[in-house]
Structure formats: C-alpha cells, structure tokens
Amino acid sequence: MIQMLNLGHSGSTPSQGSESMPDQAASPSGERMSRERMRELRNLALEMQSLLGARWEVLDCLALGGMATILQLRHRIHKGLFVAKALRPELADRPEILRSFHAEARNASLVGGHPNAVPVFDVLDAGGLPVLLMPFIEGEDLDAFIQRHGPLSRIQTLQFATQISSLLCHAESYGISHGDLSPGNIRLDQFGRYRVLDFGLSRMQNNDDPYQPFSAGTPLYTSPEQLRGEAPDIRTDLYELGLVIVEVMTGKPLMQADSLKAIRQRHLDGISALPAAIEADAPLARLLRRMLARERSERLRGAAELSRALEQLGFQPQELMRPDAASTRRGRISTR
Length: 336
Description:
InterPro entries: Kinase-like_dom_sf (IPR011009), Prot_kinase_dom (IPR000719). By secondary structure, the chain is α+β, with helices and mostly antiparallel strands. Helix content is 36%, strand content 18%. It folds into two domains: 3-135, Phosphorylase Kinase, domain 1; 139-333, Transferase(Phosphotransferase), domain 1. The chain has helices spanning 35-52, 95-111, 142-149, 154-173, 224-227, 234-250, 260-269, 276-279, 282-291, 303-312, 325-328; strands spanning 3-4, 24-26, 32-34, 56-64, 68-75, 81-87, 122-126, 129-135, 139-141, 176-177, 186-189, 194-196, 203-204, 320-321, 332-333. The strands form five sheets. The protein has a six-stranded antiparallel sheet. A three-stranded antiparallel sheet has the order 9-11-12. Strand 2 and strand 3 (32-34) form a beta hairpin. The longest helix is centred in the middle third of the chain and has 20 residues, at 154-173.
C-alpha cells in the first residue's frame, strides 16, 4: 500500500530547523499521521538529500509504501522535476527484494518509450540503496480525478481504454504484465494522456527468475488467479483493466464490499451482473464480461484482441484532450 504524503515543504528543501508541522496530518485516504511519524519522514528526506549529493534537491516525500519511499526531486542545474523511488533501508539486505526492485527498473525501462508509460532514466546508488529515477508527471491520479469530476462519458472511457490497451500491447511484446492496474496507479497528465505508474509487481513471462513477484495487487482490482497464488499474465491485466473501465464509467468500484474478506470472495465467485449503466450498452457489456471472466482461459487472449474489440465498438482515436478540458482549457496534442 502506498500512502500519499505532503510534508509541507512548499517547494523548498527540507530543513532541520523547520518545526512548523501540525501535531497530526491527514493523508488523502483520511488516515491521521502522528507528529512523530511526520518528523521521521522529514528526517528520511534529509538523509536522502545527503545521499543523492549536490546534483539533486529533495523537495518532498510524496508517498511511503511497504517497499519504497517516493521523493520529488529538482535538478539543481536545469531545474527539471523528477521522482525518485528509493528502496526502504530495512529491506536493502534482502536479495529477493533487491532482485525484484531491479526487475521493476528493467520492465519499466523496456516499456518506457511508449507514450502511456513513464520511463526510468537511471538506477542510482544512494549509500547502498537502489533508487529509480523517473520524470515527474504533472497531472492527477485517475481515482482522484473521478472523485472530483464524476464518471467519464462513453467516448472518454473508450479513449482511456484504447490508450491503456495500446500500452499493454507494447508490454506484451516484451512478455511483461503489470500485475497491479488500478485507478491509483494511472495518472491523467496535463495533455490528456493516461500514464501507467508503478511496475513494482510487474512480471516478465517465460523467465526462470524465482524471485519474480507473485503477490496480489490492490484488493479491489486483484484477479482471482492472484488470490489463488498463481502467477499473473497479460490476461490478469485485462481483468484489472476491465474493473477500472467499469469504475470510470460509473464512479464506483465494482467489487466494493464491507471487508477485505468479502472483496476477495467477490473476485473468486466471479461477476454475476454489471451495473445498469453498463448493461444498457450491450456491445460494451459483452466485452467487459469477457475481460472479467473468473477463469482467465475464458478472457480475451491478449491486449491486441482488446484493441481490435475496442475498434469494433466504433471508437476512432481522436485529438487528445483532458476530460475536463471544457472547463480548464488545458493543453492538447494530436494522435494523428
């Protein structure tokens, strides 16, 4: 789980003398964070500043996960913004974690040339800790965007699905599955592109590495095979994408339930019915039922088949525009 944070640096380098933090701070998930925890994270940012050297300025600690800390950096010469994903120090002596971290760098770099991916520029060494260096993507995560603006229209949803399917086709050509597609791992950038983030659970097919991650991803979007402890593949990504498509069209997670156990059981039992707004669109509902089949042998065979199915729904790639462009008048680019 990644917990989003803001340490109140206001764009400046953290300072040991800064003691103006509140007793508690809230993350977007509504959790409260103690003053001691905030201080610990600021100290971590200071430590990373000393390890990264004079070239980088640490602006903020953006997120804290079970394996890594996400920092926002600014290059001191050209002032460009970057993101550093640093392995947690307590995990640095575990060979399987190190191999998984480097596998993430490899997989993300292989697909990074695609316009809907985020490239990995470098793997730095910060005092023995591996750090992935990536560009900072200006924009808003899809879950936050839907919460603010409500569901996407059919045409906006198909544009979203077409972009992600294109990336999955590219990843599939390398034998890579993402394994953790969710609205929180997809960012809508300022030009209307949906960018897939966090390849931490990605896996390369036909690879004998015993340390490849098999763990389940985000509970609301975890496939039945992941819950059964089976290795994910591209059809796992199609299942997760199907759930995200339903959510962006309705504004609600399809697998929402009262407990993690109940969510797990809903995945394992399979989809009995889709929301009425989806069922009313019969061609789209048929496609989603195939993507969301409990057994992956009954799903689409891969992302290329999904892209063809999206074309058959009558969607034609259009000029890229953010779904909120009518109100924000933000930038756009052409796909032609």
